Amino acid sequence: MEFSEELYIGKSITDEASVVYMLKNGKVPAGIFCVCKKDNGRFLYEIVSAHELLKDRNKDRYTVYGIAAGKQESFELLRFILEDRHEY
Predict the structure, then answer these.
(1) How far is CA 67 from the centre of its chain?
(2) Would residue 45 be called left, alpha or beta, if left means φ above 0 and alpha means ψ between -120 and 50 degrees?
(3) How far apart are the first and last CA of the chain?
(4) pTM, entire model
(5) 1: nearest Cα among 42, 48, 58
């Protein structure tokens, strides 16, 4: 799993460093969803729970572009990313 240089953070995340640290070290932060791109996926972006992202089959497939607390916030963050990067 890689992280984008420009990492987008949801409004509810107060300590982004600890969430990123946990994800990099294989620990699952509770209630965290990530906006990701798959290396060879057919979708532009995917919303993946931290639990699913850290499974062995997914560890090397995704690049994380955003971190959100909850699924609803991850949809809002995805919309913001698409508008900010003009990828719609």
Answers:
(1) 4
(2) beta
(3) 25
(4) 0.89
(5) 58
Amino acid at 67: I
In sequence order, which residues have a C-beta less than 8 Å from that of residue 55 and are 6 or more positions away?
Answer: none
DSSP lists the bridge partners of residue 23 as none
Structure tokens at 60: 């090397």
d(CA 87, CA 84): 8
Which pLDDT tens digits describe the chain residue by residue (88 residues)?
899 999 999 999 999 999 999 999 999 999 999 999 987 877 889 999 999 999 998 888 899 999 999 999 999 999 999 999 876 6
HSE, CB side, 13 Å, CA atoms: give it for residue 26.
4
Q: Within 10 A of 48 (CB to CB), how many other CB atoms are there?
A: 20
